[in-house]
Design a protein that fits this description.
With 265 residues, this protein is mostly helical. It has five helices and four strands, in the order H-H-H-E-E-H-E-E-H. Strand 1 and strand 2 form a beta hairpin. It binds zinc ion. The site of zinc ion has 9 residues, from loops.
């Protein structure tokens, strides 16, 4: 095989791998950022549960203060009742006492509700804290893995770049310039030629060019996409079976199948 062609085929493999690794290195911080965003969600859930518990406690203290206020009022009304002069005044005071007692009862109901919801809030907090703990451990693990992978990739990239430079210095300038141009435009610069077609753009190759490519002795480019073409004898199509006969047999088989599947009823 032509030395330049051989090197360019190798160079393209390296260039593809360099692109893959570079993309991977670029994607890793994004993955870590996504995990960290998820972690922030869990942190927010913990904060929310804590805030709910706090609001619950504040509400309960307020209700307890309200109860105390109503109890004081009741004491006051009762002491006033001993000095009232008319039945109406007495009834009015007793009405106030009754009202305050109802208020106290209402507050006590609300306190009970708060106590029940506090139990749920505490459960939510425990769950959120447990999830946060697991998630934090996962984040550290993922970050560690990302760091290791990045270092490995960087290492591979350094080796590949070295190999790349070495290969490039050994290739004919104009062939290399053509390779670079096509690579830039099409993200691939080499294509296999098979069955007299460019396997990248699938355009037919003229018979004379096809004969040239089959020798792999020179740099031949696809007239349609510009890629440098090579021939792999291992992929050469086996001699085609006589077409007409094969087709006849196929249609016979089809007819047979059709007859078999036709309902007999
Ligand atoms: Zn092509």
């Amino acid at each position: 095989m032509n030395q330049d062609l051989e090197k360019l085929i190798e160079l393209e493999k390296i260039d593809r791998e360099v692109t893959r690794l570079t993309d991977e290195v670029a994607a890793l911080p994004k993955r870590v950022a996504a995990i960290e965003a998820k972690l922030a969600e869990h942190k927010a859930a913990v904060e929310k549960a804590k805030a709910q518990i706090k609001a619950n406690e504040t509400g309960r203290r307020q209700l307890e203060a309200d109860i105390k206020g109503f109890q004081e009022k009741i004491v006051k009304y009762r002491s006033q009742s001993s000095s009232v002069k008319t039945n109406d005044e007495y009834r009015a005071l007793m009405h106030e006492v009754e009202f305050s007692e109802k208020q106290i009862s209402g507050c006590e109901d609300k306190i009970l509700e708060l106590m029940i919801s506090l139990e749920n809030d505490e459960k939510s907090l425990k769950r959120a804290e447990a999830e946060l703990k697991t998630e934090s451990a996962d984040v550290e693990k993922e970050k560690g893995e990302a760091r290791v992978r990045t270092a490995e990739d960087e290492n591979l990239l350094a080796g590949l770049r070295e190999k790349r430079t070495e290969l490039r210095t050994g290739v004919n300038d104009s062939a290399l310039a053509h390779y670079d141009r096509v690579m830039r435009q099409r993200k691939s610069a080499i294509a296999e030629a098979r069955d007299q077609k460019c396997m990248a753009c699938f355009v037919m190759i003229r018979p004379q060019t096809w004969q040239e490519i089959r020798t792999n002795d020179q740099i031949v480019t696809c007239s349609s996409c510009g890629r440098i073409l090579y021939f792999d004898p291992a992929h050469e199509a086996p001699p085609e079976p006589p077409k007409k006969k094969a087709k006849g047999r196929a249609s016979e088989a089809e007819t047979e199948t059709e007859q078999e599947t036709t309902p007999t009823a």
